[in-house]
Amino acid sequence: MTNIAATAAPSAKTAAALPTRVVKGFVDRLVIIIPYLWLLFFFLVPFIIVFKISLSQTAISMPPYTPVLDFKDGVSGFFAGFRALNFDNYTWLTQDALYFNAYVTSLIIAGISTILTLIVGYPIAYGMARAPATIRPTLLMLVILPFWTSFLIRVYAWIGILKPEGLLNQVLLATGLISQPLVILNTYTAIFIGIVYSYLPFMVLPLYSSLEKMDYSLIEAAQDLGCPQTGAFWKITFPLSLPGVVAGCLLVFIPAVGEFVIPDLLGGSQTLMIGKTLWNEFFSNRDWPVSSAVAVILLLVLTIPIMFFQQAQAKAQEQGR
Amino acid sequence: MNATWSRFNITSIVLGFAFLYLPIVLLIVFSFNESKLVTVWGGFSTKWYVSLFHNQGLMDATWVTARVGVISATVATVLGTLAAITLTRYTRFRGRLLFSGMVFAPLVMPEVITGLSLLLLFVAVGLDRGFFTVTLAHITFTMCFVAVVVQSRLVSFDRSLEEAAMDLGAPPVKTFFQITLPVILPAIISGWMLAFTLSLDDLVIASFTSGPGATTLPMKIYSQVRLGVTPEINAACTILIAVVAVGVIIASIANKRREIQRQLDEQAAQRG
Fold this sequence. Notes:
The structure holds two protein chains of two kinds.
Chain A: H1 2-8, H2 14-54, H3 74-83, H4 88-95, H5 97-129, H6 136-148, H7 151-162, H8 167-174, H9 188-212, H10 217-224, H11 229-240, H12 242-257, H13 261-265, H14 274-283, H15 288-320
Helix pairs in contact in A: 2-15, 4-15, 5-9, 5-12, 6-9, 7-9, 9-12, 10-11, 12-15, 14-15
Chain B: H1 7-31, H2 47-53, H3 56-89, H4 96-108, H5 111-125, H6 131-155, H7 159-167, H8 172-201, H9 204-209, H10 217-227, H11 231-271
Helix pairs in contact in B: 1-11, 2-11, 3-6, 3-8, 3-10, 4-6, 6-8, 7-8, 8-11
């Protein structure tokens, strides 16, 4: 930016350009520094604190843990603190099958729901991408609109539908398809429905944007050469939409692993997911160190998909340039 | 391409949109139900809306939520726009990788982790939990969404406009406010709206970072839902949906008009 201003200014104007450049340099730095510092302080530092507290012991006080690695004791005290570090919370997590099961079930539930969301979302995105160009913006708007309404409300709406005396059972009983009400609420099925429903726009939007850019004459060419329709889909359309598939799956999978509202409201007390475990550990048991340890491990589990996501975002940013 | 919009495509879109909208429509319909049972239709009534306005706790929570939403969305829009400019304009500076990581990671970070970590920060620095801490937390996680929205507009921005202004002697700050800002304004407005609705919507992060006296509407709704489904909550949800829908419609109309105006201006400029 500075270069442009400098080279563009004719030599006669150099004197006038100089203070401008000084101002510019200052403004540049400010533009970077303000959001940078904010994110450092409110995003990165909190994680360090979570990690620190996960190594401390539970105590009956407020805040309910014994501080470790405190800079108040000076540098030597800080290093002495390392010996006092307490890995009990992590040992506890590995020994209690509850936590291990919660992590594994969360990953499995998130994985299955991601695949289900892809299966539901792909035909929608494909249909949108092939719609007449005039109605495409409207369709896009219609996909985004539910995203603007509260997540909590949309999950809540499903309770009324899935309850034993809910609308779905009423309709099925009235049509004679079933004679006994189905038990869906408070099961894993309800969680799948909730996740697919809530995260569908996150899947459809990236899929749509990669399908829309596709050159459909490729498919016509394949069909002219005798390729059947399904073959053309798997050989051409699907591979070309792969960036959208990857982005959509990550956008659904990562938040779904730590999801709290859906398993809590639709899954009932019988279902086990890590987000809910963390919440209960924190709010019901008031065990801050253990819930911090749960968060640290959850973050470690998600590091790889999050890094993939970040790379995909950076790539998309490069391509947009 | 239009010829290939097959019956299969149309069916999948219709079914997909039915799936997306049916639960919301049912929720709205049953907010006008006379019966106390949410799922049994007992005739049309607006009594739940009346009782809603007499529910002081709910009204207080609405007021808190609105204030948190407006303040956090405004600050998040400023910070998010700065972050977007940094991401698109400054490709080389120390710690850029960390910066882009910190912008993109919160988009997918499970809310329980963000909430817990922010709470522990507030405890560590000795801030009392309440209105202020919820607002800070909401600024932090919504600014990243603003950054992504504004960035996508900045990427397609024609830089030669800025260069032209600076060649003609406009100082960089003036160039920004007179050239760049008007062009990216639609993205900034939709960024603000996104931040506002995310703040309005948030239950998990608010539950962690809020304190006594700063109960937000989602927290209130959540605690009532846990006690049971009532038409009163349906009514509260319907009002929330209506507010957001009206906002989105106004914004999209305004956006469309601006877009048309811009195209007309460009055509005029090319002819002239």
